[in-house]
Specification:
- The chain has about 90 residues and is mainly alpha-helical.
- The chain has one domain.
- Helices cover about 45% and strands about 10% of the residues.
- It is built from four helices and four strands.
- The chain has a two-stranded antiparallel ribbon. Strands 2-3 form a two-stranded antiparallel sheet.
- A hairpin with a 2-residue loop joins strand 2 and strand 3.
- The protein starts with a strand and ends with a helix.
């Protein structure tokens, strides 16, 4: 699994600044979180990226469909869901 390095965000998706300095580190999970929070069309340079999960929670929950959506969206960003699904489950439970 490739670890992404970059500027970290805080819990409000704002730049994480400590002692006046931007914090750098592994950004993989924050990238996954942003993809899962987005709706398709929000990202100008990749309008197909975005899980649209808001529409899924308004209806009857279908865990298999949601997992398929997440897998597809992460693949669009070059991430392998099977390699990081345990990390995702740790974050949401």
């Amino acid at each position: 699994m490739v670890m992404a390095k970059g500027i970290l965000l805080d819990e409000n998706n704002d730049l994480k600044i400590v002692n006046g300095r931007l914090q750098l580190g592994n950004t993989l999970m924050q990238e996954v979180g942003i993809i899962l929070q987005m709706n398709q069309g929000e990202l100008k340079f990749d309008p197909m990226l975005g899980a649209n999960l808001v529409t899924e929670i308004r209806g009857i929950p279908n865990p298999h469909k949601i997992e398929s959506i997440i897998d597809t969206q992460l693949a669009l960003d070059g991430k392998d869901y099977d390699q990081i699904k345990d990390l995702i489950m740790q974050k949401i439970t």
